[in-house]
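Example 3.2
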Amino acid sequence: MKIGCLEIKLGAPWVHSLKEKQMIVRSLVAKIRNTFNVSVHEIDDHDVHQQIVLGITTGSNSTAQLQSVLDQVINFIESNYEVSIDEIQIDIL
């Protein structure tokens, strides 16, 4: 079995408080989990209100399947949220 890991750093310059950021993070995490059946957590920059860093993992026997799911997650975030994608790191182990 192989594991795909995605670390994605998002910018949200219009966010003005940590409370507002947490509402966005909760929405993102829930929708990504429900849509793609992957594990999602905020992994860094918890106290920076205009940065969101998510860690997303999934497992499969196929490297192509892992890459496809992680690419779909990226496309989902781009098309459904008003955030900029500042950095993406994908590792397949």
